[in-house]
Amino acid sequence: MNTEQKVAKALLKIGAVGFMPDNPITFKSGIVSPIYIDNRKLPFHPNEWQIIIQSFAEIIKREKIKLDVIAGVEAAGIPHSAALGFLLKIPSVFVRKKAKDHGTKRMVEGGSVLNKNVLLIEDLVTTGDSSLRAVENLRKEGAKVKNCLVIVSYDFPEARDAFSKAKVKLHHISSFPTIFDEVKKLGMIRGDKLKKVENWFKEHTK
Question: How does it assemble (predicted)?
Answer without folding.
Answer: Homodimer.
